[in-house]
Amino acid sequence: MAKALSHVSLSCLLLLLLLSPLSSAIRNHVMAKSSPLRSFPKTQAQKLIKSFNLSPKHDINNGDVGHVMDESPMMVEKPLRLPVLGDPAGNNSIQDLGHHAGYYRLPNTVDARYVRCSTSSLNPGTITLTTLLLYGSLEAPGCGSELALFYENGPFHIANNLSLLWNEFGWDQFVKENDTSVDQPTGTGFSYSSSANDTRHDENGVSNDLYNFLQGFFKLHPQYVNNDFYITGESYAGHYIPAFASRVHQGNKAKEGIFINLKGFAIGNGLTDPIIQYPAYPDFALDMNLIQQSDYDNIESELVPPCTQAASLCGANGGDSCTNAYEVCNSIFSRILSITEFVAYFCLQYYDIRKQCVGQLCYDFSNMENLLDEQSVRDALGVGDIEYVSCSSTVYDAMITDWMRNLEVGIPALLEDGIKMLAYAGEYDLICNWLGNSNWVHAMAWSGQKDFTAASNVSFVVDGAEKGVMKSYGPLTFLKVHDAGHLVPMDQPKAALEMLRRWTQGSL
Questions:
Q1: Which among 127, 64, 152 has a CA at the least distance from the CA of 378?
Q2: Active-site choice (7, 157, 221, 486)
Q3: 235: annotated active-site residue
Q4: Do residues 228 and 419 touch, judged by C-beta distance below 8 A?
Q5: Average pLDDT score over residue span 327-355
Q6: pTM of the predicted model, to two decimals?
Q7: Per-residue pLDDT tens over the stretch 402-461
Q8: Catalytic pick from 163, 429, 438, 491?
Q9: For residue 422, which of 499, 497, 360, 344 has the smallest C-alpha distance?
Q10: Which entry of 114, 478, 481, 502 is 20 to 30 Å from 435 by CA?
């Protein structure tokens, strides 16, 4: 049974990246550069932040301007000496977790600093590896790492009195050496820059910053260099992870710096190939009885063709054409939501269609902000007076031309070199549904495509019960998880932990 922990006991472990929906109708047309709709993404981000009961005090984390161009070392960290009450859920003790936190000053930036947190577990009998579990939030780009830490697969959950509860199925349970998290892109969570020039707008900037961070981390911690290295995340991580994995692989081949022993990457309910995933919305909605056949026919004829055309233009031209595609394609999603609200008279929970939102509120993550607002917690993390920005609408808006980009294009090269990929998806998620993810994974052109397509589905069994259905060939695995929505580790914590354990150990 989980036991309460002191509210100042903050473990820094996991980082995943999630996506948010567009819940209001978007006009189905190509937007001119000067259109007032250009302000829509930031406005929508602010609305969605409220739907998670979050209230960030700032649009972006600017940090302390007094730090501009200072001479501090590239990586600064300290151990977290925090009192913890109660026994751990697994084999770990709080001492075994070995918390450290600190800042990394990013090269090739004006003043950007990533805040990083690590947990080292020295349990005997567990696999030796290093993981960078990328997390942001239920928003698209712009949210900090702590949503996964406290609500999904970190070692702790937050009680209503802001004490901590051990998570019986935290992903620290089997990782022997090190889990590292980082708030990114710059301006999210506790990571900051005083210069707007450090705000990122595409995967090139984000992945270079992450690569530089990782080089600094391994330079400071050479004992982890030879560990197997895995990257995993959710939702908008469907963009971040392929780009970052490709950047690591490119750096390794070019012998740019420290060799990173990349073994695999996992994407949960991700947005990876929009031109395939957006047309899957009406198919999924019809299959799940969210819309009728007549609704499906109208969406297929009126909205899907303009979306595929706009997404193609984004891929060819970038820039404003990608903003246009964002507006045009999300009209598909908005139409489905409007139909469900009209017919069923309730606000559909698009992260889990078994549920519904209460008014504008879909999730309540306010305890996370309340905890991280405690000065004692910020002092323990070494962030001083820097205020936590749970979700940055400015970062969200800055990355909007990245949204409709296809990030599948870099994955085949990774598979050809034997780097494993796991794509998993909860079956009741609408926003990044399993069908759209299955479609792009099957459509991906690589040497094993034909054999993967021909492979049989097999049961994913945990404790004698089927928890999902999966298909594998060579380094590629796709898993549909039963009885789960967008947040698989929250909805099916034991199955998610077992999934990660088997995958990293090669027995999934």
A1: 64
A2: 486
A3: yes
A4: no
A5: 86
A6: 0.86
A7: 999 999 999 999 999 999 999 999 999 999 999 999 999 999 999 999 999 999 999 999
A8: 429
A9: 499
A10: 502
